[in-house]
Amino acid sequence: MTQIPAKEELLAVRFNTPMPYEWSIGRYGSLFFQEIKAHQRFLGIRCPSCGTVYVPPRRLCGPCFRELYEVVPLPNRGTLTAFSVVNYPFLDPDTGNPRPIPYTYGYIRIDGADAIFSHIINETDINRIQVGLKVRAVFKKPREMQGNIQDIRYFDLLPSVPVEEQK
Amino acid sequence: MYLPIELADMNNPHAHLRKAVTLKEVMESPMLAYPIKLLDVCPRTDGACAVVFAADGVAQKLVPRPAWIRSCAVRHTFTWFGDSTDYQKGLVSLQRAGREAYRNAGITEPARELDVAELYLPYTWAGLKWIEDLGFCGPGEGPRFVADGHTDMDGTIPVNPSGGVISTNCIGATALLRVAEAAVQIMGRGEARQVPDARLALATGFGGCFWSDVMILGAERG
């Protein structure tokens, strides 16, 4: 054979290998997702030394090395601190398939928290997204929740209040 | 401000990206994540670096002008860089590693005493801020320091004659490349990118969780 094969003649190997795994997210992570499932509400945790509020909750304050106990309920809203409209079809680890593009990934400072939370932003037109915009979480229906980060579907951008109305 | 750094890589035949860019091109390059644009950051490069370290007595037999290690220092701060509590403080690990390396090499005025610096600057803003952290100039003075030409090839402290990380980033080897390029300067092998009479060179490395490595090389055995 001296000709380059047509697309239909190409050889391909496909295999599916199941890779079951079990990963415990621990008491602090579980608390976070249980609260989302039960009440569609975020929880943070506050360090008694430096006052930093982390979301999701974690066991230790990194800089202070203090064990944390003070759980803090937080609103479902925050402020966008950074974003990227992604045009490269990275693989979704949950499906093994390329993510549909474009999608927007954002960093959110939840109201009342100091740590940055990252998630999908429900807007892909780069001209409509700005650092500083307010965002609000949109959840799955509770019966569809599985206790993971996708129980939050995405964050909606909230329309910014025109300057005249702020006075 | 980054023009001098970008132009330098035209002199380095081993650089990955070898194209003079204008300020306008940088400001108009595609947005990656606001406000970071494509030309603000380093590429991903296939490459490698090899350096030969030799003992005193052996080094002199290998080359006429070895680059002697005068000092080195490493600092790490937090495992997760989200725990870096105060970004306003600058790159704390570089401040501390730099201070120790300078102290052990007997350097008190780095911008004046060093002849050349190969710095791990993966982003344009790093070039403006981290030279402050290294004590080349005071806090807030970085942009003026660069704009005044102090980091140019004929300036007070030439920075990245190789073109630096923004022109070549074979990550994993990128920091060793800074040591290699600093050694090249001391050994007089820089060819078109040689800083004349370089006798004291600074090389720095940077890691993803904001850690810093600093090495000072010199022509004097010490």
Question: What does the model show?
Answer:
The complex is a heterodimer of chains A (167) and B (222). Chain A has helices spanning 26-39, 163-166, and strands at residues 42-46, 53-54, 70-74, 77-86, 103-110, 117-121, 134-139, 152-157. The model of chain A is unreliable at 163-167 (pLDDT under 50). Chain A has one domain. With 167 residues, chain A is mainly β. The relative contact order of chain A is 0.15. In chain A, strand 1 and strand 2 form a beta hairpin. Chain A has a 5-stranded antiparallel sheet, with no helix packed on it. In chain A, strands 2-1-3 form a 3-stranded antiparallel sheet, with helices on one face. The radius of gyration of chain A is 21 Å and the shape is globular. Chain B is built from 9 helices and 6 strands, in the order H-H-E-E-H-E-H-H-E-H-H-H-H-E-E. Chain B has helices spanning 3-8, 23-27, 59-62, 92-105, 110-113, 124-133, 142-147, 164-167, 174-186; strands at 31-33, 36-37, 68-75, 116-118, 200-206, 212-218. Mean pLDDT of chain B is 91; it is low at 1-7. Chains A and B meet through strand 4 of A and strand 1 of B.
Number of domains of chain B: 1
Number of domains of chain A: 1
Low-pLDDT regions of chain A: 163-167
The largest interface is: A-B, 13 and 11 residues
| Gross CATH architecture of chain B | 3-Layer(aba) Sandwich
Shape of chain A: globular
Rg measurement of chain A, Å: 21 Å
In whole angstroms, how far apart are the ends of chain A? 78 Å
Supply the helix-strand structural class of chain B. alpha+beta
The CATH first-level class of chain B comes to: Alpha Beta
Could you write a compact summary of the structure shown?
Chain A is mainly beta.
Tell me the layout of helices and strands:
The complex is a heterodimer of chains A (167) and B (222).
Chain A: H1 26-39, E1 42-46, E2 53-54, E3 70-74, E4 77-86, E5 103-110, E6 117-121, E7 134-139, E8 152-157, H2 163-166
Antiparallel strand pairs in A: 1-2, 1-3, 4-5, 4-7, 5-6, 7-8
Chain B: H1 3-8, H2 23-27, E1 31-33, E2 36-37, H3 59-62, E3 68-75, H4 92-105, H5 110-113, E4 116-118, H6 124-133, H7 142-147, H8 164-167, H9 174-186, E5 200-206, E6 212-218
Parallel strand pairs in B: 4-5
Antiparallel strand pairs in B: 1-2, 3-6, 5-6
